[in-house]
Write a structure and sequence with these properties.
Order of helices and strands: HHHEHHEHH
Largest sheet: 2 strands, parallel
Strand content: under 5%
Helix content: 55-70%
Strand order of the largest sheet: 1-2
Length: 181
């Protein structure tokens, strides 16, 4: 049973690459205002700096509960990196341009500089808690303005807040003592 090329070939026009007009190629949809872009950028730089400082702490922490602190720092770093990527990609989806360059982060973050050298676990707990709370503060500072313009971006901030507030509570608990009644 022989088949000819004509009976087995697709009769449609051959496929070609996309050939859209310039207008069709232009990105469309909701575009972030300068204010929305600036607010998301503030969160982005703090998350990038949180991850970077977390790594600095991770490498240089020493003392009691080293292993638990070391591992908990990895969890915070992973979360901060994931959230920074989510924020940056949300900015791109809104036609804003995220800036995660090291100079930009250092110049614009709200987080204080992290100390150099080895640092005791008790000091790392306090330092990291302070940085988690600063990043939470940035998220809360911009939240209402972000929510007013783009509730979807505000939903992302809710996830960031939930996670970082939980980390701040868990990390700070390491140095706390029970209150007496």
């Amino acid at each position: 049973m022989a088949t000819t090329a004509n009976t087995t070939k697709n009769k449609r026009r051959p496929a070609r690459g996309a050939r859209l007009t310039d207008e069709q190629n232009a990105e469309s949809g909701f575009t972030a205002s300068k204010s929305l872009s600036d607010n998301l950028q503030k969160v982005l730089v703090d998350l990038i700096e949180l991850a970077s400082q977390g790594k600095q702490a991770h490498w240089n922490v020493v003392g009691k509960n080293f292993r638990d602190t070391h591992r908990q720092l990895d969890e915070i770093i992973d979360a901060a990196r994931g959230f920074s990527d989510t924020i940056a990609e949300r900015m791109r989806a809104l036609h804003a341009v995220p800036d995660g360059r090291s100079d930009t982060v250092a110049e614009t973050t709200s987080l204080p500089e992290f100390p150099t050298g080895e640092i005791s676990t008790t000091d790392v707990v306090d330092l990291v808690t302070e940085r988690l709370e600063a990043t939470v503060g940035t998220c809360r500072d911009v939240h209402d303005a972000v929510d007013e313009e783009d509730p979807t971006s505000a939903d992302i901030l809710h996830e960031v807040l939930e996670s970082l507030e939980q980390f701040a509570w868990m990390v700070s608990a390491e140095n706390r003592v029970p209150t007496t009644r």
